[in-house]
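Exercise 7.
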Amino acid sequence: MTRIFRAPAFYIQGPGALSQLGEKAATLGRSVVAICDSLVLPHIEPDLTEALNRQDISPTVIPFDADVTYREMDRLAELVRAGGGEVVVGIGGGRTLDVAKGVSRRTGLPFVSVPTVASTDAPSTRGIVIYDDHHTMIAVEQMDQNPAFVIVDTAIIAKAPARLLLGGIGDALTAKFETEGTWKGTGLSKQGTRPLKTGVMLGDVCYRMLLEHGPGAMRVAGTGEVTPDLEAVIEAILWLSAVAFENTGLSIAHAVATELGAIETVRKHSLHGEHAAYGTLVQAVAEGRAEQELTTLLGFYDEIGMPRRLSALGMPDIDEWAIESLAVRCAKSPFMVNQERMLDANDLAAAFRTVENYA
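Solution. The predicted structure, written as tokens, is:
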């Protein structure tokens, strides 16, 4: 079978990287529309304007503070068309980048991704997570292309709350386990092909970088200090994890994360990356990973403060019925084909119990 590998054309990371936005965007078009997180905008607006003005670009800046809905994407796409936009830039966290991706997809314009947090691996991917008016996820769309540029200013991300970096680490931890599951399973990547071995190798490198640099990165997260540990963890989250999963697939960890995120109390109490980190534990146990590997993983969670109990994620009434019900829902996930052997709800329930009872 033909195998396909895709990734952003350029990934640019470092303190002050925002200053390169104008130069890079100008290679795509002269009329730039920047959709920017409304909370972030006041902190970066002078640098953003200067970076674009140096290339004689007078951008249209649209503040954004809403959910990623079909209505919002269509509304913003119409504003971009009416203004003669040639390039869409998304600046902010997950919601802002996703809505900007949706605008790019609807207008057919190139997209530049400028994440201001490292809370998930989404900034380098084609995926767009869409919600309804009740904040419930209802669909996932894919852009035709990965972002033309991903510009990661680590000086900005270093100031973001430490909890968000913890979530990013949790999301990226899944890469090793899910890429290996995909390789052994029968599922297809986003490209509609079986995965390349490269994706599996990237997932393993991502995991090793997180274990080595995660504790140091968490010690400085939120302080504004940019250290080698922080740079390495941001790279693992925003680049390695994203490219690994897009070219392989998802497995048990994200089946669990998806179902946990559908529980309102959990969604309000904890982050997607924390749900994914818990799902990684479930996957590792369900796969029968070696005790030493589990010990290493759990020790890492404790060292960086990653929650590893359902109660810590905000799930109420954790009794046998709740665990079995959760396992049944997870077992129905399309991601479950990405495993060496097919696991059923009983297998997953047993894994949940083991994780919950682990010392």
